[in-house]
């Protein structure tokens, strides 16, 4: 059985000069937030809208109301059109501030701890990534919780208005009001363990594939820079990110439902919703395919995010 530690002869040469400038990781977090927030909004709204059909069908039937169902042929384009009609282009950057407050410290913590476990501790890329991601998630989970709720809140407003429940929804209802009404401080870490369970396989798959492909493809016969190498790195990040997303997306569905559940207390009743209830309800409705709702916009988000991160990662190598 292969040790989780890298043998000295197995180490890739560029690791010896690896460093992590704070400025580059800050820039990484800023660029990823700006480029990928629209795709996060699409994904979170899609999941929220879909989950409302799953859990609230009985409520609307009992009230004699018409449920606004998510059509079976709902796709990314239709979700984009619905969001655009709701609030124009600015809707797609909903939650940009909490996204930056999540991504920037997340990148700084992750890359510095990843470098430490990779170099100082001698762990393999997969193990170093898992350890770094777990530590990062513990620190930034509250900001991811806020980001997810702020973006899904669009769905809360749209869903109630479309179905004419009779509830007046304030467009500018603050997240803090919801927190005081439904949450306590500990619930800022709501969905923490399912987030870690989502991120562990993603990180292990992504960094293992990335480092192996990088050493076998990107470094062979190439100089330290150049458009050809950049294209190879982008392709590696895109492939590794796509595979890792497909592996971890079902857990992202569960996480998003847990973190947005308190919007629906009036519909679902009080009390915490369990991961088991979410999984069983989703599976009963459309089977396993329900766990890949919104996977396409998440892949579209992950690809540029990973490409930007890997490019800046290369700048940290000598």
From TrEMBL:
It comes from the Eukaryota. GO terms for cellular component: mitochondrial inner membrane. Its main location: mitochondrion. It is a multi-pass membrane protein. Signal peptide: none annotated. Belongs to the mitochondrial carrier (TC 2.A.29) family. This is Mitochondrial carrier protein. It comes from Cryptosporidium hominis.
